[in-house]
Structure formats: structure tokens, C-alpha cells
User: Fold these one by one.
Assistant:
Number 1:
Amino acid sequence: MNFVNHLFSPSGFMPHGYCYLWRPDLISLHVVSDSLIALAYFSIPVTLAYFIRKRKDVPFNWMFALFGVFILACGATHLMEVWTLWHATYWLSGYVKLVTALASVPTAILLVGLMPHALALPSPEAMRMEIAERKRAQDALLTAKNELELRVRERTAQLVRTNEDLVAVVAQRERADQELRLSEERFRLLVERVEDYAILMLDPSGHVTSWNVGAERIKGYRADEIIGKHYSCFYTEEDVNLHKPEMALQAASVLGRFADEGWRVRKDGSRFWANAVITAMRDSEDQLIGFSKITHDLTERKRAAEALETTRAEMAHMARVMTMGEIAASIAHEVNQPLTAVVANANACSRLLAGNSPDLDDVREAVADIAEAGTRAGAIISRIRALVKKDMPEKTKLDINDVVQEVLPLTSGELAKHRVSVQTELFPSLPQVLGDRVQLQQVILNLMMNAIEAMTSIMDRPRVLLLRTQVQESDRLSVAVQDSGAGLEPGNTARIFDTFFTTKSNGMGMGLSISRSIIETHGGRLWAEPNDGPGATFQFILPAYPRSTA
């Protein structure tokens, strides 16, 4: 209420008429002018409101409303000019002007933004051209309609023919679908009745969704017991802890197929050796929808392979024993030499110590010789014991040059007996191999004994046995045993590695066959070839053990 009183209070101001000195002619001029302007301003919003109400289709009609408010406020300011001639309510006049400003500023801003759209409105000439264009378009549309009706009639006739063809195609597809369903049913029955293979389906997370008779026979689960469970229950606890089931599914999803062999677990907890193939299944959009898994029980084959490996080991042991028997006299000579040195040095020590003032330096030298000779004899006996001992193969990282050096003392007696000289060309810093030391010693010993025997009949030239090791490319190495003997008969080259084939009068034909088998189980190859000169070369290659990159 105080605010209203304040608006209509003169607040000590003088009416505006005092500024005009109350001259009647000047006051009349301002009163008439401001009154007419106010009257005009008040009539314009009414006209605009009527226009907006009648022409709601006109674009930007909200701008007309803003103009009406703005003009109405302007008329009020002129009306206040008349009022303040006699009444000094300038606060009321100021607030009326403030309202006018609040209406005018947004109107001006919006008008600037509206201007591009207003300028884009077509002119009367453009409207006439658009009407003419629309008439032409209407005529063209009528022509197109007539043409379309004609085409529709033609297409209708064509559709009738196509429909007849489609009915025939549908009938043909129904027959094909029926044949496909029958084929799928036959395939399903075939899969379900296969007993030698476990065939099952997995969802993308590895849960069993289908189960056949073979799976029930091999793994022991009935379909209602296993469907819905994760297939990791077929793996051993060790493999589950190593996340092998998850890694197998991941590999199959990336590569499309994953094959593996290993121990699996039946329902009753028993283990069986299985070959499993997991194949990823994808839809037409290449989205993974599951896996198929085929498992074959290879337990009997595994046992047969282990039995074969045991038989091979026993045959290799028998061949080693036979070879050691053949060179027993030479080995006895090799052992006898250090033992003779031990006895001689022991007697020398006794004589030295029996004197009144023994020379302790000579005694120490004799004792050192005894220790050296004993160590040498012990090393020879250890090598013989390793070759004769019946153990299963155990592969470790080996230096093949060391293996060759360990075999040489075992053949020194035979070499001296048959007057054969040995030459070695051992490649320095050979990469290591993964192998069984005894078996590789057996192969080299067998090849050396064959080479010595091949040179026993040679009288017209030196008997030379060459042992050579080399690097083959970057991932293989070779060992060659070359003799200067009678060489290979052309007809026997392809047969000398056959079991029980021999050219010796007292041979059994097992040494080379076992040697080849040993090399092949080490991932290598053994072969023979004639030399450019006299004699032959027996050579084998082995894969090198990968060097550490750390």
C-alpha cells in the first residue's frame, strides 16, 4: 500500500506545466499531440489482436503480439506525459517507461533473429511463379497418375504371374524343408546313437546343452544329470586350477577350432586319456552362439603307446648291454690302466714312507697320482653303469659335444685294437638339445662301433674315424660319424635301418634300427650316405633347445 501511495505522491516535485510556464498555447499543443499519439498507440494493439485472431495461419504471429504489447506500453508513456502536466507523479511515469523498456528490448532482440526468416518469405512475384509451378506439377501429377494406373494394371498382371511362380517355389521349398527336417532328424539320431565318441553342445559360457549316447558311455553321466552343468567337471582338478577349460573355449572362439589331448575325469572319478576337439559355432551375423565338442577315449591307445615306449626302452637297454659285452675286453683294459697306476703309486708311497727320512713331496705327488687315476677309473665305471642301468628315458638339456666326449673313452680300447685313429671336429658353443643322455650316448657308441668294424678289412689306407658336430641353420644341429672303410653297398643303403637287417655274420640287425628310433623320438632324423672318397658317413640331426631371450 505504501508503494502505491509512493507512486501517486508528488514527493515534493512540481508538475510539468511549470516547465511550460503554464502557457495555454504550449500546454494545449503537448496535450493534443500526446493524446492523439496515445489514442493511436492504443488502437494499434487492438487491430493486431484482431488480425492474429483471424489469421492464425500467418507465421511469426507471436511477433505481432510482442509488437502489440510494446505499442500499448508506448501509448501509456504518452498518456503519462499529459498526466504529469498537472500532477507531479514522476515515479509512476518512470515505472511506466520501465515497463515500456522491458517490452521493447526483447521485441527488438527477437526481431533481429526473426529478420532472416522474414526475408526468406516469398515475394508476390515469387508466389505467382510458385502457383504456376504448382499448376504445372499438378498437371504432371495427373499425367503420372494415369501412367501409374496403366503400370499398376501391367504390374498386377505381372504379379499374378509372379505369384503363381512363387506358389510353385514355396511348394518346392516346403518339400526341401521337409527333406531338410528329415535329414536333420537322421543326423540327430546318428549323433545320439554314436557310442565311440562323446558329442555334445555347449552354450557360449561352457554349459552343456546336449548329450549323446557316446558321451554317456565314455563319461558316465546321463543327459538329465549333466545338461546345464559347466563342462569343466570333465577336467582334472589340476587342469581346472590352471584354467584350462576357459582357455580352451577362448582359443576355440578366436581360432574357430581347438584340439587337445590329456587326462579327463568320469562321473565315478576315474581318469581316461582323451582327444577333444572344440569348434566354435556362429550365426549368419558372425555372433558366437555356442560350441560343439567331440571327445574320443584314447586310453587304450595311450596304454599301448606307453607299452611300446617301455618295449623300445628295454630293446635299447638290451642293445646297450650287448654293445658293452662286445667291448668288455677294451673297457677292462681302460679300467685296468688307472688301477695299475693306483697300485704302482701305492707301492711307491710304501717304499718312500719306509725310509728313515721320507721325501714328503714325492709322497704327495704319488698320492695325487693315485687320486687322479682313481677318479679316472670311477668316471669310466660310472659311464658303463649308466649305459648298462635299466632306466626309463629322462630328457634334460644337454651339450652334444659333452656327450661325444663321454663316449670316446669307452671306445679307446677298440680303436687301439683295430688301429683306428680318431679325429674330432666339434663345433664350439653349440646350442643345447633336449634329450636323454644315455640314449644319445648309445646312438653315438653304436655308430662308432659300426664305423670301426667297417674298417677292419682295410689294409691299403689309414683307418680314420671322424666325429663332427655342426650347427644346421639356427634351430638344428648335426652329429656325423665318418669312416674310411669299405663303404655302403647301393642295394643296402635303403635297408640298413630296417629291424633285423644286418650285413654282419654275427649281427642281430637291431643296433641301427634302435638308433633311428631313438633319434626320431628326440624329434630328429638319422640317415647314411656314401663319402666322396672311401667309406660312409652316418649322420643325425636334432632340434636345438631354444636359447633364453632374457
Number 2:
Amino acid sequence: MKEMRREPATHSKKHKKNVEPPGGTGVNRRTALKLGAAAGAATILTSRKGFATDFIGAQSAAAAAATPPPPEPIPCTPQPTHSPETTPFVQPLPIPPVAFPQFTLSPAPTLSANIAGGEAARADHQRWTQFLPHIYYDFHLKPALHQFHPDIPPTYIWGYNGIYPGPTILNLYNLPILVRFHNELPVTHDDTVNFGDNNHTTHLHNSHSASESDGFAGDFWAPGLFKDHHYPNILAGFDTHPPLGDIRERLSTLWYHDHRHSFTATNNYRGLNGMYFLYDFIDTPFEGFGPFAKTATTTSSGPARPDWETNLMQTLLKTEGATTDSLGTTVASAAANFDTNAKSAFPPLFLPGPYGVYDIPLNFTDKKFCPDGQMFATVPDAVPAGDKFCVNGAIQPFFQVKRRKYRFRMLNSGPARIWTFSLLDNGGGVQPMTVVCTDGNLLTAPIPVTSLQVFVSSRFDVIVDFSKTNIGDHWYLTNIAPQFTQNAPEPNPAPGVDINTVVMRFDIVGDAPDNSQVPAHLIDYPDLNLSEVVTTRIWNFDLFGGQFHVNDLIFDADRADAVVKQGTAETWIIRNRLPAAGWVHPVHIHLEEGRVLSRNGVAPGLTDLESGRRDVYPLLGGDEVHIYLRFREWFGKYMIHCHNLGHEDNFMLVRWDVGTTTSLVTSPFKDPAGTIPNTPGAGPGDPADPDHGAQPNPNPPILTEDIFREDRFKPRKAAKKGVVA
């Protein structure tokens, strides 16, 4: 298909007011979880024995922290027609370092915002004592220099801890953590001279977290301040599926990024994003029990489980010398009494791992560079179509692999390109990829594909099996459309492989043991309970007069266009009102994963990638998608928006709130004063348009009961057995 177009260079007035959330939570406290052991288990995710790349990356991060920030470059003019030439496959794929956890922060985190201590204003953390964090991360957003390619001079970036992509956070379910984000972006930055904005907010996409830690687009804060985000890492359904939530609601692959409204595209283009992985007993950080296996036999609570919390903690004690957590509890002792999956009915999957060795993040973006190596963008907030394919911050890298299975966690971090990937071998033949996760959610069964379309902010976890290759072979990950400029003179690497479509190369260099597997059954989906559905909402995504709208309105951080009642379910219908040749909108809904009931009236098939749980729903021109959503655990303000970063910056985003009531009208009327012409066909605001703002919710709710009757939406009673690889 065609590459997604970028938005026209039309800029609305930017609302730069800082809108902070209201105080208070109104949430009942529950008995605190046993957290100390989980803290120990997660901390080991940075041990030398666990992950081969961690301390190399940590040294790079430490070097970045010790380096004085570079000055902002002078923007290049005129606009370059193309980036400097680069030679492909001359640099290895960088693996982002693991974020190193710690047991203390100064000043210590608090329930309420520590204004006197330098924290930006925010609401109190919800359920703070119930999910008290024992593990902390300290992130500093700062400028730095980054080498995208040896043929291009170092590039000025903004990065979490001064690196791009940011450090990868590795954690466990039921381990509450806190991340402190320090805004150390240049105080002197002028967005009338240089692109981007130095006010900041971070969104952990798609964490099931409280509103005050969600990174709402209007909750940005200025340089010199920090803000603490509390991530409980609990399963959705925690309150209705005791003791620890519904294991079927788990997701593995998340990412974090700047979400400051009007400047999300430019700030991400500068480098403000990274990845966040969650593990549990089903999707473990290792592909086998190995030396960490328990000798106990199967018990009534489930299969025998590895005692890797305790053993990994002992490794931590030897390598780091840490013996206690911030509360003075011996972590190693606590770890011995903790089971991360005591109630799980699903066995471990043993997908390829560990991180950085056989479990590899792939963060895809495209950029355009000036002759001096600086990224080109238009002041203050327009990002161009890039002409260089970048993976983990490197242009057309190579990655050395062994003859075995690998897990690649693919992320399209934007700003706008739709990637359509294929995997080609030495002879140009198409090789299969096996999808196991969509948007971080395990599918019920693996789905093999030969082509994979990845929209902005979508994630796909794929397994690639190199076991039948020859040492010395090369495989190529390609995109359907080429880069827009030629590289340095370079022959095509294989018959049928266009060098300008190659995103990265895999070099088969040897053999390695493979204890991983790809089971034929991965997990069951949560039940879809029609009795929970209380209403249906309709969201229309449109373009009128050079301005993007949702339900004929542009974003206002002070206005909630819907209120959903906590503990209920709704069906949402999202529509792209533009024709088939128009814009594409990858729509993202914060807080909860959803299930696609139908697209243009057709339910997803069993082998359709849209059959799984999602948080990104691509809308092509004229599309209408019907989604089932629950709203649980948290109160406050969240968003639905187009995740083409330029579109959301042009105000194609909406605030909706989780509260104690259900609003029966979605979106207030746009023009109560009647100043918009009422000429039929005039567009948004025309009373003849049945989809203008202030639309009542359909009554009764639209449930598509014919779809719900189908077997694919009923809970599975028996799991498939065996493995597919």
C-alpha cells in the first residue's frame, strides 16, 4: 500500500497552558501486597549473568550522564532535498541498555506532589499504600550527541538519560515501581528557532496505571522540575479477579514516550522514547528453567515453578553487593517466599530469551538529516518524511544471529510512516515470521505471516527461526517502499532484494543451543460479558478546513468529552470520515486493552491479527471499527487519539474521564453561539451533519450480538497442546 502521507503544514494556535489533574482519589485501600520479594526479582534483571548487553549499555549511559550537554545546533536552511549518502550494513544493531533499578531516591517519593522538593504539580498517587513501590528508576531527560551512522557527523538529540533510544525497563507483574522523570531539557530552548518544546510529559503506552501517572498530554512540566510516575504493574481486573487480577489480561511489550500536546512528533523525533517489558511466570525473562529450576513436583496450585526469584537474587547480591531494600527488609529472604504466578493456570511459554541476546527490541523510525548531521524538521513542530531507515537509532544496521530462534519485539515509534515488512533470504525468497503478540498481548495461538504491516505505535512480537540457514548466509528485513534517496553506490545484496528497501540485515554467524519453544497454544482471551456493557460511544475522526477533528472538536485539556463509570464496559465505534484515498489514523485508546468486534461490519477471523487484544486500531479511509472495552481500577482523565504524531499534534485527540457515572452524550456541541455557517454540506458544525458534536449515545447500546454468538468470542474450555517450533 502507499506510504501514509504527512499532515499539511497547517498549524493551529497551540494551547500551552499547563493543566494539572484534580487532587484526591476516592479509591478504597486494600491490603498491601507482599512486594519485597518481587523487588528482588526485578532488580536482578540487570545482573551480569542475566543479560549480556546490560553493563556495556550501562557504561554508555554512565558516559552520557557524565558528558556536559551539547549546545543546540543552528537549524540548517534551506530544507535539504535528501540526507547525506550512507553505506548500509557497516554498523551493528545497538541494543538499548537495561534501566538500572535502585532502592532509594532523594528526595524520597511521596503520596502528594513534593512541590517544595522540586516536583511538578500532580494529583495524589491513587492506591499508594496498597501498591507501595519498592523499586525506583531515575530518568533524566537531557540533550546529547548520537551517532546514527559513521558517514554522518554526530547528531544533537534529546534522550532519556541522554541516550537514544532510552534505556529499556524490565519488570515483573505485581511489582510496583516508581520512575522519576527529571526535565533537564535546555531552559534556553526557543521553539521559534529550533523545533520541539522543552516542556515534557511521559506516557507509558499502554500501561494499566492511574491517570496522574499516565502522561496526559496537558500535564507537561517545565525544565528544572521532576515528576514521579507510579506504575503498580498490576493486571487489569485486579479488583474483580482476586488475589492478583486476571492473568489473561497480561501484556508484555510496552513503550514510553514524550506526550506533550502539540509537540509529540518533534519531541519523539528528537529521541524521547524507549521500551518497557513486563515478565511473569507465563512469559519469563529466560527461555528455560536451567539452573534456577525447582526440584519440587507439581502441586495442587499448578505445575512446578522455578525458584528463580531466590536464585537470581543471590546472583544480584554477588555482583552488586546490595543486601537490603529501602525498608530494610532482606530482599533475598523475601524473594524466597514470593511466587509471581501462584494462581496461574497457564504453563511457562519459554519464548526466546534473555533480553539483548535472543529477545531483541527493534524500534523503527525514519529521519531526514542535514549535511552537518543534524536532524531536519520545520520550526516549531512539523516533522518531514524521513529518507533514512533507522533501527534502535542506527541507519540500516546488521545484526549477527546464531542458527536458532529469536524473538524480535517490533515497535513503530513514528512519526508517521506505515512499515510493511517482509523477510527475504539470500536468494530473495520470502521467509515466514511467526507473530505471538499484538500490541504486547499474547495471541491465543501463533500466527505465521510473510508480510507484516506496522502502524505508528503498534507493536508486534515475532519469532524468526534461523535454524535451517547456512553459516555465512544473510537475511534481509525489507519495507514495501524504498527510502526516498539513494545510498552511496551499492549493489543489490541478493537477487530480488532492492538495497533501498532493506531496513536491516541479519548475518548468520554460528550455532547456539536453543531451549526456546513456540507453543501451539499461548493463552486464553478474557471473557466478553455483554451484561457489563452500559452504552455505546461514537468517535468520528475527520479533517475539515486544514484542521483535524474528533467529533468536530479539537483537543481541549480542560474538556472531558465522555465520562465512563469505573467497573463497567462499553462498546466504542471509531470512524474515519475521510474517503478511501484520505488520511490513515492509527487510533490509540489509553488505560485499557480492547477487542475488535468488527471492522466495516466483518468480525476478525481466527487467524486474523486483529483477533487479539489491542490498544491501537488503524483506520483507513472510510473504515468503521467496533471495539469492546472495560474500565477498571483507576479514576481520572485519559485519552483517545490518532497516533500519527503529526495528526495528534494538530489536535486529533480527546480527553475522556473514568468516574462514578456514565455520560449518555459524547462530545459537547462545538458551537453553542451559532457562529459556524449552517449551509448544508458546510462541514463540521452544520446541523445537517448527523455526526456533529453533542451526539447522544445510541440507546440501547450497540452490541453486534450476531458477532458475540460466534465461538471465537466464547471462553476456551480446553487448550491446544504441543509446539509449532
Number 3:
Amino acid sequence: MVANDSIWPAATDPNSISSNFKANTTETDRLHVGDIKVDYQFPNGDRLFARESYQRRDLTAPSPGTRFIRIDDVNSAPRDHNTAIGYDHTFSQSMINTLRLGFNRFYTVTSGNDFQTQENQTLGIPNSVYPAFPATTGIANFEPGNIAVTGTQGWTDARRITNAYQLTDNFTMVFGKHTVTVGGDYRRLQASLTNADQNQSGEFDFSSDYTSSCVNQPNCATPSGGYPFASFLLGLPSSVKRGFVNTLPATRANLLAVYAQDDWRITEGLTLNLALRWDLITPPIDKANRRSNFNLQTGLLDMARDGNRSPNVDTYYGGYSPRVGFAYTPNHGLTAIRGAYGITHFPGNFGGMGGALERNYPFFQQFNVAQQTQYTPFATVAGEGLPGLTSPVISDNKIPPPPNTSVTAMPRNFQVDVATAWNVGIQQQLTQKSAFSLTYVGTKGTHLYRGRNIDVAQPGPGSLTTRRIYSSIAPNINDIEYRASDGKSIYHALQAQVTKATSYGLEGRIAYTWAKELDNTSIWNPLIDRLNWGVGINQAPDTPQSLIVTAIYELPFGRGRMFFSRTNGFVNTALGGWQFSTTTRAQSGMPLKFNAAYDNLNAGFTNRASITCPSVRVYGAPDRWFDTSCFTTPDLYQYGNSGYGRVRGPAYVNADLTLSKIFSLTEDTRLQVQADAFNLTNTPHYANPSTDCCTTNNSNFGKVTSTNGSPRQIQLGAHVNF
């Protein structure tokens, strides 16, 4: 693989040992969008409308250097459309009914740049390509340390389809001081997702274990030396992963909601909002019962069947969501005080509504072959190669998982996510054109979706095979993905905002947020859950401070303006009507997590680094973001104490500016010309520094080696509206 430049390109900077290849690639993105809408008003005042929107996109994302280098993007071809039909019926001046029918389709096919190549076979990797499974072509993900990863994202070379049918009806009646709305919403979801959780071309991970001083010494406490790339050159992986999609999923789910709301205007200055909603969100099923659930008592996979179509998962009927709010003004709107409290039930983005039991064995065959005895090689790339496709053995609707299978278990009492939100704020008019508001916002998340491998062991010596928690019922597997609704979060924020309506050609808004977010949804320790509690780093990153400034300024030139107000037509056309608009955003850096240099837990999950200083100094330089001397690898079989957020990454500051003008060509035709400057100040948007401890094992530790945004870009455009 390293004998020539066919996989990894030659360095463009041969004098550097890291970040030494630079290339400019051009993505081709063709987008076609179309909308059609019809409105009709009946003689009695009822209204009917129908709308169809269609989008076609073709994105080509080449890899830099060679087609075998992994990038964050993929080639994709979405074909999406949305249909809506609405009917509004007026019974009287105080009673109206709105009916909506909708259909939304998301369809896309993705592929990596190595798709349909035979590179794994060329490299001589056993069990690499299966002709009946085209996604097994290409090259595996080789991850040899600080070298560019090969292959493509594991979620690509796939088809994604989602159909959503929706029916909503609302009846509103006004009587006295009350405006009452009752209604219902029904949605039918259909989905099919054909990417495996593990790369179908395979994945080989490498560590320093097999080239360190501890190789073949399972109880070694302090390894020295070793390098992941050296282990790669020897062909000794630390883990081997591979997936097969042996089915065509057809997931189905129903979402039903009924609700009632009363907006009660008690006095001219006080309004009370009362509402109650009930949500029923059924567990997903498969059209052909192609689902299974790993049983933590028997060690077998229970297959779906009629009467148990979402195997061993019950429907949750407790989705009651009360809501209350108020608005009060003591002085006819100059001052407004508002507050609200409400509960919302909703399906998580991943793991609950889909991407779980339909992806279990034998329908998705996913394998994870990992080291069981510390510092002891267990396979070679050229010898054992990749895991192969297996044939399931079904007895009484149950299946024993084959060795090294990754399985998924979901508890019977799984339920959807719950968010409890509250806020109270005051808004004060400052002048006729400006206002100030100050609001406290809180949100508490409960029953949040979390997924983690629970088949791990307590830190200690010895082979993992017999020490794993579920080794007595499933001795041949090492990855039980437990997908439960046991996560929680808390968010507090103080939001301040100043707004200015248009006067003297200027309007704008300044918004500042001071916030704190804590959760346990980023799991590193599946044994001691309190160690997972900390500032958010994943789905809801903790961002202590955020500032957004927006402004639109009409330049004071041309007729009716401060300057050249009586100018002739040519000068007015050239100088008048121009406006600047700008958006500036600044926010705190994201919290960082620090992994230990090597696996010294021998427990089946990665340890955290330890911090030896009372506080870690942040230098803020790309080549030394923080004081790396404050970090060390914990003692043997001891957990690290670095937690989450002891150090933060680079802050984000960006300003965009637009200059635009609209020309009237005819009575019905307008031409808009526009110049956009993105990242006007050309401020570098640094990505987070490398946080894999420590300097002796990772030369990039504490260094920023990439950016998280584009340099200044200037774009010219024109739009014709007719």
C-alpha cells in the first residue's frame, strides 16, 4: 500500500511529518428546484389550495490526491418532493376549520469515490468482495494513526428513502374572551435505509500496542514506544469491523396527536394560554417483520412476528403534555412580561424511530473483532482479513448470534424523548423604534435516547472473553449495543436582545446569550454513569456565550435620500437604492474531551486522560493550544479525571457582508444584483486541536491541524424576478 502513490499521494510538503499534503478539489453541485401552487376561493368564502415542490440535486465530491482518501462528504443524488393540500372552511365570523393533507418524500443515493473498485482484492485481503453485495467493493478504512484514513464513510454506498404522510385538522372558535382550538395530527412514516453501521468494505484500526515495549505481555503496566503506523506496516490491527446489508428494510411507524388550547384574554393587558396535548408514537415495525431484539436474559436474538412486531418493545401511552403561558402588559404594550411552561414528547433523531432493531442480525450482519488479551495480536490483515457473511440458524423464532457479531438490545419500556421547557422574560420599549428584552430560558430533557456497548468488563487483568458482563450467555460476542431512553439533560440560559426598527435607513438586532448545558448523552464509561455527566459535547454542545449582530443599512444616496436627493435618472440609477446587510456571529469554543494514550483499563472501552494541574492554561496558538504538560495517562486500571470541558477549543468569529440593489426593468420585472463577502475579515476558523494524549504518543497533541470553515469568499450574483 505504501510502495507507490496509488493509495496515499506523495506529500506536497516533504519537509513536514504532519499535515503535509494540500490540494484544491472542486465539488460539482447541480440543483434543480420547482414549485407549483394553485389557489381557489369558493363563492361562500372557503379556500382551497394545492402545492407541489420538487428538488433534484447531483453532488460530486472528489477525494484529494487519489480516489481512496476518505473525505467528510460523499457523492449524492437526492430526489425529493413535497405535496400539500389545504382546505379552509368558515362556519361563521367566530368559527373556522382548517384541513391539511401532506406528503413528503426524501430519496437519495450516496456513493464513495472508491465504490465499484476492487482495491481490497488487489491488496489480497481475504473475504473482501462479495459480488452479490456491491457495497463490499472499494477499499477498507485503514486508520494507521496520524495518516489520512482510506476508503469512505461507513454510512455511504447506500439508499435512503423516507415517505411521510400527514393529516392535520384544526377547529377554532372565538367566544367572549376565549379563543379555543381543538385538533389532531396524524403522520404515517415509511423508511428504508440500506447503510450498515459498520463499513461494508471493512475497517482496520491500528494502535501502538503491538509495536510497544509491552507486546505479548498482557499484564504490562507502562508501555513505551510503539506507533500505530508501525503496527499497520506489520499488518496487526487492534480491531477489525465489517457489515453486510442482507435485506431491504421497510420500516413503518405511526404518530398520532390530539390537542386543545384556550387563549384567554382575561383583561386588556393580561392573556393566559392553556393547552393539553396527547401524543401516541408507536414503536417502529418492519413491513415483513424483519426485526430482531437481543435478549439480555437468554443471549439469543428474538425475531419479530405477528403479535410482537417490534420484538419485546411495548407501546408507550403516557404522552400527556400540559402547557401554560401568559403575557402581561401594565402600560398598553410599552412593557411586556411573558412566561411559559410546557412538556413535549418527540422521537429522537436516531436509534428510536429507526436505525435500531431492523438493523440487527441476521438482516444486517455487523461484526466487530477486537483484541481480547491486552497487547496480544489476534489477527493479521493478510491472514484472517475481514469477517465473512454467515448463514443464520433459526429455531423457535430465535437466533444465536455468530461469533464477533454486533447485536442491538432495546428494553421493553423504551419510550420517546421528553423535553420540559420554561421561560420568563420582560420586553421594554426604549424609543418608538427600539426595544430591549431580557429572558431566562430553561429546558430539561428526560428519557433521552442513548446508545452504548454494555458488554464490557471491570478494569483489570486477564482476557476480556470471560470477564465481559454478558460472557456467560453470549461468550462469543463483544459488542451489545444497548439503545435505551435513559438519558437526561439540563439547559439554563439568559438571553438579552436589542432590536431597532427601520429609521434613517438603518435596522438591526443585537442578541447575546449566556448559557450552560449539561447532559449524559456522550457516554465514555458504560459502567459508572455519573462519570458521563458533564457539559454537552455532542448533540447539544455547551456554548457559554454567543453574540449575533445583524444590520441592514440603506445607503443615503439617490432620490429621497440625504445626498443626491434631486439627482437625475441616470445618477439615481447608478447611486440610489443600494443597501448593505451584515451578519456577525461570535461564540465560545466547544468543550474538549481527552483520551488516554493507550488502553490501560483492559475493559473494552477507551479511558480518559488525567489532568495533573489545578487548571489547564490555554495559550490559544495553533501549534500549542493548551499546556500539554498538564496531561498524563492514568495509572494501570484507573479511570482518568479529565472529564468534559476542562479545556475549550477555538472560539468562532465570523462576519458576512452583502451589497445589493434592485433595478426596475419593466412594470413587472425586477433585476436584483448582489455582491456577497463571506468571512469578510478572512478570520481563520480553527478546528479543535488534537486531544489524544500525550505528546510522546501523539506529536500533534494540543495542536490545531485543520480549519473548520472557509477563508474569505466573494460572490457576485444576479436574480431576475418577473
